[in-house]
Amino acid sequence: GTALIAELYKPPALLPIAQLKDALLYTIETYPVTIIVGETGSGKTTQIPQYLHKAGWTADGSVIAVTQQPRRVAATTVAARVAEEVGCQLGQDVGYSIRFEDVSSAATRIKFLTDGLLLREMLVDPLLKRYSVIMIDEAHERSLSSDILLGLLKKVLRKRPELRVVVSSATLDAKDFLDFFCPVDGEKINGKSKEEYGRIISIEGRMHPVDINYLIEPVSDYVERAVETVMDIHNNEPDGDVLLFLPGREDIDDAIDMIADRITDLAPGTQRLQPLPLYAGLPSDQQLYVFQAAPENTRKAIVSTNIAEASVTIENIVHVIDCGYVKLRAYDPTTGIERLATVPVSKASATQRAGRAGRTKPGKCYRLYTEAAYNAFSDSTPPEIQRSNLAPTILQLMNLGIPNIVRFDYFSNPPSELVVRAMDMLFSLGAISPEAKLTKPLGTRMAELPLSPMLAKALLNAQTFGCLYEMLHIAALLTLSGTAFIAHDGNLKQLDKVKRKFAVEEGDHITLLNVYEAFITTGRKDAQWCRSNFLNYKAMQKAVSVRNQLARHLEKLGISVSSDLSAQRAGGIFSLSPSERIRRCLTTGFFAHAARMKPDGTFQTANGETTLWAHPTSVLFHRKADWVIYDEIMESKGKVFVREVTKIEMDWLVEYAPEYYRVKQR
Ligand code: ADP
Ligand code: MG
């Protein structure tokens, strides 16, 4: 594989950024802040860190950090690519770090990491002293963590005038980023005026024209239509790979299956078609195919989420199909429900998607919507800070010692109702006091665990319920969000049968516990056992690793995992069954995710406003229940599902979250 990959890519010296190398190094040397603007694929992510490394920015042992969106694929593939160019093993000079997976070492000088992880590093190293340069990549995507990082770095720069901040952006928001960092007219920061503080560098794009096609009539089933378009292109266009944008993994799996079905009808001897998926959770061995050249006489059809819009570059794309939708984090402060919602893309996004077709030569973009629909799209996507549950972020900011959350220097301010709602939630969880101070030890410990506040709270409570061991297993599997089971439409019936081996009537969490224990005793040495139980062997191995990392985190916080001799204790809480103790413990964290089953089998949230369905992979699917708590909400084919659902009792909600449920009743 390696030789083949190398062949396909432009030598770095030919990338558009190469011409700007000297100017770039001069600017970074001279000014604290550099904003770099350039088309996707111009070499910002892969080349800038290498230039800096060679120019001596790491000579004293410092590290160059490059933050990636919270997307596994982006950090891992880019790091792998740069390690290859540098000629080192991944984890040596070049490494990456994402949640629960650190592939870096003392030798690492260029480190790709998620923006969320860099935020976490500030807990131990508030001025980020290990780093000489910090590059916030794809800042225009305005992820919640990268927005927060911008605000924090602005503060760090005042205390560390020698630090260099590079902000990369694919669009023309460059001036906003510069203005945010620089002193206003007449003011100085560390003796530097506005003109002395930062610069914008633009890489000239060399884009080929892209011919845009709209539909005359809207379609109802964009997956079906997308597949037809792929086949039309394949049958009528002489060459060029296809890139199809769909909102999420489910649609992608469906489209791949449908394309695979139709391939069998292709006339023998004609060019072959190879459908390939690309999404954030894709295992790394499968990611590779996307970047490799197709075999001879074969056209690639890459079916991707938004990730191929700007985060990763794929060469040789000539045809782009844009379904017009994207999955975005959406938060409703009145119901407190956060989910990934499928919504229309923005004009900026549609333009960026079309641009993917014009990198190698003139291309074509097929928009699966009408021109009128396009005209109704918003200009750009609202930043994540305006549509997210802010509880995890506020908890982190407080733990970083930010004295007043409302007056923090946000790149753009969050709506006050989201801040209020997050504070309420943190208060109900016991993480902050009525005076809005972080509680000790609970609040600080919650902030330090790399888990959602709800899961962190349940795990930190586990010792009092005598179920720390069990909760560690459950927490590890919850972080994999549903990847432990190999589930797709075609195997749900069989999966259900197999799952019953592990299933308990109380619901999914204890079922997951049984799965984990069976894996440890049997499956770990037996990949075949995993396959026959529809368990994803790699995901289960990952769960074991995550579990051990969480145990180490707890030990660091002074919570002894090994001395949890719950089974030998008696009396009090220990007179309850293990199952009840675990479910009560979960309730102390997930009380806000409570719902009640109605006679028709759907669930109503505690505030009665949303109808939810048990996900088909849940052991409570088509089963009777009363009150439950759930881990996650997901949307699929227009329905809202809850995943990882467990039966609880209403009394527990009142017992463990009196504040929250008193507020609710008012
Ligand atoms: P930018 O950050 O400006 O969008 P990149 O530095 O990501 O550009 O990409 C520069 C070049 O490196 C592109 O030609 C791209 O095809 C290649 N490249 C980027 N990522 C990978 C990867 N994971 N594997 C192989 N080649 C890659
Ligand atoms: Mg990039």
Could you characterize the architecture of this molecule?
With 666 residues, this protein is of the alpha/beta class. The protein contains 26 helices and 21 strands. The strands form four sheets. It has an eight-stranded mixed β-sheet, sandwiched between helices. Bound molecules: adenosine-5'-diphosphate (ADP) and magnesium ion. Magnesium ion is lined by residues 44-45, 137.
Helix content: 40-55%
Which strand order spans the largest sheet, edge to edge or round the barrel?
Answer: 4-3-5-2-6-7-1-8
Binned strand content: 15-25%
What separation lies between the terminal Cα atoms? 63 Å
Give the overall shape, derived from the CA principal axes: globular
Instruction: Return residue spans where pLDDT drops below 50 for at least 5 consecutive residues.
Output: 1-7
Number of helical stretches of at least 4 residues: 26
Strand runs, count? 21
- Gyration radius from CA atoms, angstroms: 26 Å
What molecules are bound to this protein? adenosine-5'-diphosphate, magnesium ion
Rounded average pLDDT: 91
Structural class: alpha/beta
- State the major sheet: 8 strands, mixed
List the keywords.
666 residues; alpha/beta; 6-stranded parallel beta sheet; 26 helices; 21 strands; 40% helix; globular; disordered N terminus; binds adenosine-5'-diphosphate; binds magnesium ion
